[in-house]
Structure formats: structure tokens, C-alpha cells
Specification:
By secondary structure, this protein is an alpha+beta fold. It has a single domain, classed as Mitochondrial biogenesis AIM24 (Double-stranded beta-helix). Helix content is 16%, strand content 45%. The chain has helices at residues 36-44, 85-97, 158-163, 225-231, 254-260; strands spanning 11-17, 20-25, 50-64, 69-79, 106-115, 121-126, 134-136, 141-145, 148-154, 169-175, 178-183, 191-202, 207-211, 215-220, 235-247. The strands form 2 sheets. Strands 1, 2, 3, 4, 5, 6, 8 and 11 form an 8-stranded antiparallel β-sheet that branches. Strands 7, 9, 10, 12, 13, 14 and 15 form a 7-stranded antiparallel β-sheet that branches. The longest helix is centred in the middle third of the chain and has 13 residues, at 85-97.
């Protein structure tokens, strides 16, 4: 099996890691007179279609977000990824408390697997380099190697998380293998904060992922309610311990997030 014209003058592979490759469209030529102008300026601002291409060599397995597959070629087959009743209920609970699909299909075989295009940025991470694992914001999971474990982590201070209008649970990836994450911010704009027995306080959900070994809570910006009211900051996300936090340099807006998720 050979795929011709996967890369050409208008689209090319911008990053490779393990069996995963990110295909980016420099220009989208599948346009007409009604949307050509918008597509032109979108490409100039880096708002481009991207696809994840996974090479299946017979030995590896790939787990993807439900409904993300666009096409596959060769002797590639899909399974539910469920290994029994207990595994099904565990995944159902994990899907119920996060924004990820409860059951993610698993693919194996020899050939090529290509996922649906997205306008979001695709970040490839080596999960093993995060040691204790990497915890991601809801909705970021796109795909991973079958050797990557998925678990739920809870925030240490549930009451303050509820008051801060934050989710109580997040998806954590651990083990060995590559994971592909969908981000509203390009990887080269993310700020990496490496903590060594220290703490980081962020006003808002600007952190996109962090080391699972960090203690994560939502607290008042100062030690008193009056102090928080005077500072105007209110509740902040706090990360303590030793590990890494990847943080967006700017706050996200609802309109922007809605537009890039289409």
C-alpha cells in the first residue's frame, strides 16, 4: 500500500514523533468564491487545517478520540478497546466526569490511519518524559499509543474548585508512548514553567497541561476573603511541588474557542 500526494505544494508534514505525524495545510484550495477570502486571511494568520497521520507497522496500537477517524488504508482494523465489563464501567465513569469520550476505539494492523482535520494545533508529547505522567485539560485528548495509560485525577480541594467554576476531574496520561493533544494555542507559544519544590499561581484556566505529580488546588489569591476582594483576583489555580506546567500566554475567549473547535 502506498499513499501518493499526501504531501504536496500546499500541505506538508510539520512534525513527527514515534508513529505519529502532523500534516498541515499551508493553503486550503478546496474553496469557492464565497469563502476564498476568509480562507486566504486565515492561512496568513496561521489558522490552518491540520491532520494526524499514524503509521501502523503491525506491532503498534493507536487509541483515538471517538469519531476522529477519517480514513485508513491497508490491513488496519478497529476494536472497541474494551477489555471486559470492569474495563467498560471504568471507562464509562472516566468519560462521565471528563469531556472525553467514554470509550475510545483502538486500531491495530499494518497500514495508515488518518484522523479528521482540525483547526486546532496538534501537540505531540513523549509521555515517558513527564515521569509521573501528564494531566491535560478537558477536550485536549486526540490520540495516543496503545501503551499509554489513561487515568482520572481529582483536584485536591473540591469545594474551591466548584467555587472557581473549574472541573473537578482531569484526564492523566502515563506510561510510555506518544500522545497527540489538540490545543487552541500553538506549541511554540506555550510558556513552560519548571517547578522544583515550588508553587505557581494562575488566574484562570491558562494552564493546558501539567505534571501529574504536582498538587493542584483552587484557592483564594490571598489568605483572606477581604484580601482577595481588594486584589480583584478572587480564586486562582495553584500548582505545588516538582514538575512542569505548560501555560498559554493569553486568556482564551469563548468565541475563539467555539470557532477553533469547528
Amino acid at each position: 500500500m502506498k499513499a501518493r500526494n499526501l504531501e504536496n505544494a500546499t500541505r506538508h508534514i510539520i512534525k513527527m514523533m514515534g508513529h505519529f505525524s502532523v500534516l498541515e495545510y499551508d493553503r486550503d484550495l478546496s474553496v469557492n468564491f464565497s469563502n476564498a477570502e476568509a480562507e486566504y486571511f486565515m492561512s496568513k494568520m496561521g489558522v490552518r487545517r491540520r491532520q494526524l497521520v499514524i503509521n501502523m507497522n503491525g506491532d503498534n496500537r493507536a487509541v483515538i478520540q471517538a469519531g476522529a477517524m477519517q480514513w485508513m488504508a491497508g490491513n488496519v482494523v478497529a476494536t472497541s478497546g474494551v477489555k471486559g465489563i470492569g474495563d467498560f464501567f471504568g471507562k464509562a465513569i472516566r468519560g462521565a466526569v471528563t469531556k472525553e469520550s467514554a470509550v475510545k476505539p483502538e486500531y491495530k494492523g499494518t497500514g495508515m490511519l488518518v484522523l479528521e482535520p482540525t483547526y486546532k494545533h496538534i501537540i505531540l508529547v513523549d509521555v515517558a518524559q513527564w515521569k509521573s505522567g501528564i494531566t491535560i485539560e478537558d477536550g485536549m485528548f486526540y490520540a495516543c499509543d496503545g501503551t499509554v495509560s489513561q487515568n482520572i485525577v481529582t483536584r485536591r480541594n473540591l469545594s474551591s474548585a466548584a467555587l472557581g467554576n473549574e472541573g473537578l476531574f482531569n484526564l492523566s496520561l502515563s506510561g510510555t508512548g506518544i500522545a497527540a493533544l489538540e490545543s487552541n494555542v500553538p506549541e511554540d507559544e506555550l510558556i513552560a514553567i519548571d517547578l522544583e519544590d515550588d508553587e505557581l499561581r494562575i488566574d484562570g484556566d491558562m494552564a493546558v497541561c501539567w505534571s501529574s505529580g504536582l498538587k493542584f488546588t483552587v484557592e483564594m489569591s490571598t489568605k483572606s476573603i477581604v484580601g482577595s476582594a481588594v486584589s480583584g483576583e478572587g480564586l486562582v489555580n495553584v500548582y505545588r511541588g516538582t514538575g512542569r506546567v505548560l501555560m498559554s500566554p493569553v486568556a482564551r475567549t469563548d468565541n475563539w474557542v467555539a470557532a477553533t473547535s469547528k
